[in-house]
Specification:
Rossmann fold, globular, single chain, seven-stranded mixed β-sheet, alpha/beta
């Protein structure tokens, strides 16, 4: 059973993507629901709001313990921020689970008007490109030695600089993306993230 953290964000699209791929999934809003799942999706949304609601639901410590014990996880967009070790551009009191050794910049790809789509080649998937929707997406600016880059995208930033940016990374049982794979009807990253359970 795969859980989708359902305090805020794009929960239904993840549940639909998993269901369409034949994977049993349920929303997770309470500690009792977390205890009944084997893997967890951290969806896109608004990371500061998610952090507040996670604490209000009493889920922060149980999720920390689940991640520390090796529970497989997929973080998308704000979910990447919630898993990251370091956040740039967040509120002074913003916290994360620090389970993924990356530094991220909130809204690093720019504001809503800079949202875009791109075709990516993702290591670990078949050769068919994956369509990726970047919506106020975070940018990974640094990765630790235990993190593997699975996909990059070329991007021109507001200052005119151009570089390839890591947009899918993995470390241990965690896979995380800067974009929203649940919006394009392609379940391959979900299946990759939870392959050990399926």
């Amino acid at each position: 059973m795969i859980g989708v953290l359902a305090v805020q964000g794009d929960v239904e699209a993840h549940l639909g993507t998993l269901a369409a791929a034949g994977v049993r999934a349920q929303a997770v809003k309470r500690v009792s629901e977390l205890a009944s799942v084997d893997g967890l999706v951290f969806p896109g949304g608004e990371s500061t709001t998610q952090a507040l609601l996670i604490e209000a639901a009493g889920l922060r410590r149980p999720i920390e313990e689940a991640l520390a014990s090796g529970m497989p996880a997929l973080g998308t967009c704000a979910g990447l921020i919630m898993l990251a070790r370091s956040i740039v551009g967040g509120r002074p009191d913003q916290w994360s689970f620090r389970a993924l050794d990356v530094t991220v910049v909130r809204n690093g790809f720019g504001r809503q008007v800079r949202s875009f789509e791109a075709d990516l080649t993702v290591r670990g998937l078949d050769a068919k490109p994956m369509r990726a929707a970047f919506i106020r997406a975070p940018v990974i600016t640094a990765i630790g030695p235990g993190v593997t880059t699975l996909a990059t995208v070329p991007y021109e930033f507001d200052d005119g600089s151009k570089r390839d940016v890591d947009v899918v990374v993995a470390q241990g049982a965690i896979v995380a993306t800067s974009f929203h794979p649940e919006l394009v009807g392609d379940p391959r990253l979900h299946l990759l993230a939870f392959a050990s359970l399926l």
